[in-house]
Prior knowledge:
Elements: E1 2-9, E2 18-25, E3 30-34, H1 41-48, E4 56-61, E5 64-65, H2 75-78, E6 81-84, H3 88-91, H4 98-108, H5 115-126, H6 130-133, H7 142-154, E7 160-164, H8 172-189, E8 192-197, H9 200-206, E9 209-212
Parallel strand pairs: 3-8, 3-9, 6-7, 7-8
Antiparallel strand pairs: 1-2, 1-4, 4-5
The structure holds adenosine-5'-triphosphate (ATP).
Amino acid sequence: MLELTRITAGYDRRDPVVREVSLHIATGEAVGLLGPSGCGKSTLARVAALLHRPDSGTMSLDGTVIRGWRHRAPQEQRTAVGVVFQQPRLSADPRLSLRELIAQPLRATGRRRDVPARVAELAPLVGLSDELLDRRPHAVSDGQLQRACLARALVLRPKLLICDEMTAMLDASTTAALVAVVERYRTETSAALLAVGHDRVLLERWCDRTVRWGDRSARNAPAASG
Length: 226
Ligand SMILES: Nc1ncnc2c1ncn2[C@@H]1O[C@H](COP(=O)(O)OP(=O)(O)OP(=O)(O)O)[C@@H](O)[C@H]1O
């Protein structure tokens, strides 16, 4: 499903954060990526989400080698990946209601007509009432906003979902609820999952396998063996 091979990436070409990291995720597989703060997990996750262009290495998604990045990456590949980040307030436009936030990817891909049906389908799944859907980010809690961000990540039915510390700011019950939503979605669609985090116990319970940054399987190796 996702093949990152010898990816080097960062913010300064002379001193990249991610150096020759390989990570392979099979169709339907859930992989947890663990590692110390600042090692480059989010940077690698952004590469996988086609949000950060690597300096070198190759990536393929669902059998297609990605040659263009960001704007140039084909829409089919960009829409095949859904991402949820740690801090919902950094990724949510404060001017939009939660309903509009969830619908954003549909509007961006010319599928406005699908908005009412998809929002009506996803809102109860992530636990958002009609009343909450009409509020803007400043009027909801972090947990409620993260529920909307998860719905937004699922709205195009991605084949790969990336959860970058999705639950780091949440309490235990909201964490359990959002993990359950992801698991239900994966059961129904066979989507793959890359879950990045620090909580080893959670990731080991949630994922088919976990990879620790610096392990042979996550660094300087052609393939992750688990
Ligand atoms: N936009 C940016 N510009 C410059 N440096 C950055 C940028 N984003 C991240 N970095 C740096 O890259 C390094 C890796 O950051 P990254 O967020 O990928 O690590 P991480 O493993 O996800 O950390 P954490 O677990 O704390 O979230 C850090 O030293 C960070 O300061």
